[in-house]
């Protein structure tokens, strides 16, 4: 019996594509491989595709997400995009919310024990997850499941039987466990249960393919191992790369402040996409756009031929903004960006009325919500980041009399302030 580690190594060597494939299978394989890191084993996936085409029975494609935060950013949508592409081919996608596994806490990539979430936190986060995922997936064709459905009934006896299907030695081959053990960093016994329970999800759902980020490879391979243990045909696994954030270096992360939240307002989303580098733009096209690879390649050739790269970036920004808002919102966001780039004021900005004239500029910036504190406001002024009625401000001691002012901080923060 192959273990997850051995299975991963051997399958890459044997990823052979049969010589005689129908056009439909070739197209499905091309869609599957677009932007992916690994498809394990590729030859098994081709067989599954061919069988599905011959029988008309859709394949079951699973993606599990633990509701560890109340919302998601576009980096999370890389795997959701792949799900949508496979969904559009007619396969059954399963959006699995890990309400049970969240109680354990995913140790993947961790150098210490992840604090488990409370049931209340999990419930609150899960309520928003599918609504946000539905901005990418077709909700009418998506099967929504919660892994507490089969994990809770498993009980203590079932948990012991499940744990008997994998060894501690194999579990310790996992990089993060190995590194923590070697460094003398504590590993709680319950953390061993996480990959087992994620693998058991594949057994319960009889999945044909499971998707995940590259950091999930061990857990995904566990699903193959356990399906074999339970007498099922093992799933294939598809890992997708982690999306670089706005800086083009680190993976997209809220903690690194290089992210675009899918619930951010349209103007901000559009402007953030335009802020990425020309090089990063093409990777985002591959992983985030629904345009075909042929369309993207044609666009690349136009840019290489002299067309302004900004044109392609605007197209990407409009596509992403349309997906999470609307076409009209994307058009308005483009116009707003043009206005700002020319030093203009957006059509709609917050209006704030403040008592206390005359008021110091630092206090005004804080009171209007344009700076976290008066001292931060002063730092913004020192950096040339504050404008009053379009004029860059340099005097930190300025006191404004009663009246109405358009105050701008940076490129995207505006307020129409009425001092009384």
UniProtKB/TrEMBL annotation:
The record's catalysed reaction(s) read:
tRNA(Tyr) + L-tyrosine + ATP = L-tyrosyl-tRNA(Tyr) + AMP + diphosphate + H(+)
Gene Ontology MF annotations: ATP binding; RNA binding; tyrosine-tRNA ligase activity
The answer to keyword Ligase applying to this record is yes
Any idea which UniProt keywords this protein has?
Aminoacyl-tRNA synthetase, ATP-binding, Cytoplasm, Ligase, Nucleotide-binding, Protein biosynthesis, RNA-binding
Q: Which domain of life is it from?
A: Bacteria
- Where is motif 'KMSKS' region found? 251-255
The first-level EC class reads ligase
Location of motif 'HIGH' region in this chain is 67-76
Name the EC number(s). 6.1.1.1
Give GO cellular component annotations, separated by semicolons: cytosol
Q: How does it assemble?
A: Homodimer.
Q: Which NCBIfam families match?
A: tyrS
Q: Tell me the protein's name.
A: Tyrosine--tRNA ligase
Source organism of the structure: Hydrogenophaga taeniospiralis CCUG 15921
Task: List the taxonomic lineage.
Answer: Bacteria, Pseudomonadati, Pseudomonadota, Betaproteobacteria, Burkholderiales
Q: Which gene encodes it?
A: tyrS
